[in-house]
């Protein structure tokens, strides 16, 4: 799994609104030295200001109307958590915001480690997975979110045909992947059925864009980041996303040390991919199971169909991750096709895959 790398921050001279907001908040200013940025869809700046304040500033970029919606969702979550604080669910304190500039200023947890980095380093322990489950359970117990619009993913419309603009911008591997998905009629039907099932279940306040890099652990505990997709949705989306992240991590691990284990230049056979993939999924299963135990221990209500829907969403999450990967490659590798097969299995037969993922827990485990 890719680390969330630090990057060189964009010049503040090109974004004077950042220091203007920091001054209005009484936090001083950032200068060009010692400022970090992190990979993501939005420009961001992290560092210590002239007053010594540790700040993380995010600017929601892109279409102005769409970024305003994301800005509103982020503030809606902050208001909900402020009104209903939880020991289980925390995020870095919001220090200020500016709607016109689409800026959010948070306290910077400069000693924190991201969940994806800990996963890559083999340091994501079951106890941490349990805390993640409790955090998402607390999220699903908050009062209703303001945004009730349907989530845009999976994009079932694109499973019929992608628009010319997407076609023109796509790489060859991405187009091949879309073609595989579109020709797989049972898979298309399963994704359409999943969207239909979502419309029939009770929606809860949901993160709706959950990934391992959005969990931060520092000396004060666990924090959850990036609330721009906060909305009412099927709680299975968040549960399935956590499980899907570990499926994605397991599949990436299959290819990580091939040269070391089998010798330089080795290409894994289908049989070896299946063997190593099964072993990796078994290795991460306890983490998913502990997340699920923490989720149930949070006291959240769980409907009878949640594990199956969550498993199906885990399958979609894996396919979605692979679509993003295909957009950076010139061809689909054997490991990519194997991963697609796992995602497909989870979507077509979620009831048979729940135990494999560790989601088939008792109806209500005892408290920890």
Automatic annotation (TrEMBL):
What the entry lists under NCBIfam families is as follows: lant_syn_V_LxmK (NF038156)
Domain Aminoglycoside phosphotransferase, residue spans: 42-243
Q: What is the name of this protein?
A: Predicted kinase, aminoglycoside phosphotransferase (APT) family
**Highest taxon of source:** Bacteria
Write the record's keywords in alphabetical order, separated by commas: Kinase, Transferase
Single Gene Ontology MF annotation: kinase activity
Pfam families in the cross-refs: APH (PF01636)
Q: What is the lineage of its organism?
A: Bacteria, Bacillati, Actinomycetota, Actinomycetes, Streptosporangiales
